[in-house]
Automatic annotation (TrEMBL):
Family that this chain belongs to: Belongs to the bacterial ring-hydroxylating dioxygenase ferredoxin component family.
Keyword Iron-sulfur in record: yes
UniProt keyword terms in alphabetical order: 2Fe-2S, Iron, Iron-sulfur, Metal-binding
Organism: Mesorhizobium kowhaii
Keyword ATP-binding: no
The protein, known as: Rieske family ferredoxin
Annotated NCBIfam families: MocE_fam_FeS
Residue intervals of the Rieske domain: 5-101
SUPFAM superfamilies: ISP domain
Stored InterPro entries: MocE_2FeS (IPR012747), Rieske_2Fe-2S (IPR017941), Rieske_2Fe-2S_sf (IPR036922)
CDD domains registered for this protein in UniProt: Rieske_RO_ferredoxin
Cofactor dependency: [2Fe-2S] cluster
Length: 103
């Protein structure tokens, strides 16, 4: 059964950036888009399990810091080799200045 987890404050993430969030042995990446929306994906690249929190955010894309694979963080879609497996995404909501993810 899915539940909502309080992950961070909205102010913890700059526009067009992300933060790492660890919960119960899992790593997530939480993004703030250019239009001030929040998104969440698995926090590790599907190619070699590198933490995406060290990657570069450009508009709606995250570039893995190790081999420069790119994902659309809104959908998790793998966009550029060497990544070929999509990231898992998670629903987000904002309430009272806090970002929640559904896990």
């Amino acid at each position: 059964m899915a539940k909502w987890i309080d992950a961070c404050a909205t102010d913890d993430i700059e526009e067009e950036d992300l933060i790492r969030f660890d919960h119960e042995g899992r790593t997530f990446a939480i993004y703030r888009s250019p239009d001030d929306a929040f998104f969440c994906t698995d926090g590790l690249c599907t190619h070699e399990k590198v933490h995406l929190s060290e990657g570069l955010v450009m508009e709606y894309r995250i570039e893995c810091p190790k081999h420069n694979g790119v994902f659309d963080y809104r959908t998790g879609e793998a966009l550029r080799a060497p990544v070929c497996v999509n990231l898992k995404t998670y629903n987000t909501k904002v309430e009272d200045g806090r970002v929640y993810i559904e896990v």
